[in-house]
Amino acid sequence: MPLLEIKDLHVAYALGRGRQVQAVRGVSLAVERGESVGLVGESGCGKSTLAAAVMRLVPAGHGMILYDGIDVLGLRGRELFGFRGKTQMVFQDPYGSLNPRLSVGSALEECLVVHKIVGRHERQGRVAELLQTVGLDSGHAARYPHEFSGGQRQRIGIARALAVNPEFIIADEPVSALDVSIQAQILNLLKDLQEQKLFSFLFIAHDLAVVRYMCKSVYVMYLGHIMETGLTDDVYSRPAHPYTRALLEAVPGVDRVRGKPRVHSVEGEIPSLTTVFSGCPFHSRCPMAKSVCREHVPEMKKVAAGHFSRCHFAG
After folding, report:
1. d(Cα 47, Cα 204) in Å, to the nearest integer?
2. Whole-number Å distance between alpha carbons of 64 and 84
3. pLDDT digits (tens, 9 = 90+) for 98-146
4. Comparing C-alpha atoms, which of 215, 252, 290, 296 is closest to residue 31?
5. 156 DSSP 8-state letter
6. Which position among 88, 167, 179, 225 has the lowest Cβ density within 10 Å, counted as fewest Cβ atoms?
7. Could you tell me what percentage of the chain is helix, strand and coil, using 3-state DSSP and rounding each to the nearest 5?
8. 142 exposure class (CB count in 10 Å sphere: 0-12, 13-18, 19+)
9. Which of 199, 217, 234, 204 is nearest to 304 (CA)?
10. Around Cβ 234, how many Cβ atoms within 10 Å?
11. Residues 214-231: pLDDT tens digits?
């Protein structure tokens, strides 16, 4: 049984006058115990909304989110509190995710108090241990968020997530707001911590190279749909969906013939999330699209062992 299993999840935001943004449309996804799973796609495809729904930060309209076999969407009171003690999130914005009025030590200690992790006399020691675990000095506990760099703040956010000894962590674009020189440090820290503490990991990013480095398996998302999934090496080396191929071609590469850098982009405009599809959500931008793509929504098809694609022509 997967630690986290999402089944046919739908999440929509009301715009008024009967209009809705369909941010997540029938997503199914699984994360095994101790596994690192990536979720990739262009900005606005619904990745962060999916993460927020798993953490019960936004309401889901339909579907199931099973954590250790229990539907999270039905949890209330103490049961929901218990779930939140097992799962944590590292947010994209290291500037907005920390309370500017709390010192770093107070922010970490608050987690320990709320979840009753350690006794009163052990809290300061635990705070010092958490800071050292993420590569910060224990003396930083008395300082406030504005006194730290972006990379240091993200380390504090990681320490806060670790405070409750979680089984499962969602990292939502954890390095996209950081300087390139700092990104590798944070990625290596997260990878090392996951290997040491064996928590399950859902890593969300639009940078495919980062996901390949961090994750064993990957889900590719477009306009609220999962378009392809499989082992990361399989999907990257043998992409079965035109959207996945377009994303991979958009990664900066090197033209071996002329020796000049080349950068491709996914052609066409992303449809509005208010769009009601009559066929494949990618058909308006797909170079392979036929009439069947405009008329019928493709099902997930097996293209190899553990490798699936939502394309009429996959396989």
Report:
1. 7
2. 17
3. 999 999 999 999 999 999 999 989 999 999 999 999 999 999 999 999 9
4. 215
5. H
6. 179
7. 35, 25, 40
8. exposed
9. 234
10. 18
11. 999 999 999 999 999 999
